[in-house]
Design goal:
By secondary structure, the chain is α/β, with parallel strands linked by helices.
Length: 162
């Protein structure tokens, strides 16, 4: 089991002036691949978890940052990107694009430069928790700081309840 942030993500934190975040990375013996697992391990509500989800917009990867209590509305993503089709990226595309496995994808520090959309729901909290590059590690960050470091565009792409 990994007890610290993924080395690539640790380097990205250092490079972006967020080295102090490394001291706040929390590791868990059980995987925190899902928002529910992460929230239970941390002891917070699922909406405080930042999910990093990769989609393909007309075949081009795009990262969507979403609160853990919500689902992404792919039609809203499609409209936001003015794309013909938006689909969930498969595990291979996620790893190729980000350098991380599903369940451990951090919001930034990826292998490739990808367009990033962040749902406004993340701003409802003073601190959110995101994956630190492995399915066993998470880190806390202010949502505004997260959006800035991810180079994200703030959008409303959350699925609305009926």
């Amino acid at each position: 089991m990994t007890t610290t942030a993924h080395p690539r993500f640790a380097a990205a934190l250092e490079e972006s002036g967020l080295g102090e975040v490394l001291a706040r990375v929390r590791s868990f013996p059980e995987a925190t691949r899902t928002a529910a697992e992460a929230a239970a391990a941390i002891g917070c509500e699922p909406s405080r978890i930042c999910k990093s989800l990769v989609f393909a917009a007309d075949g081009v990867p795009v990262l969507v940052l979403m609160d853990g209590a919500s689902r992404v509305d792919v039609e809203r993503v499609r409209r936001e990107l003015d794309a013909g089709e938006v689909t969930r990226a498969d595990a291979g595309v996620v790893r190729e694009t980000t350098g991380y496995a599903i369940g451990g994808v951090p919001p930034f520090g990826h292998r490739t430069r990808t367009r990033v959309l962040a749902d406004r729901s993340l701003l409802a909290h003073d601190v959110v928790w995101a994956a630190a590059g492995t399915p066993y590690t998470v880190f806390p960050i202010g949502p505004e700081e997260l959006v800035a470091h991810a180079g994200a565009t703030l959008v409303d792409v959350r699925e609305q309840s009926a």
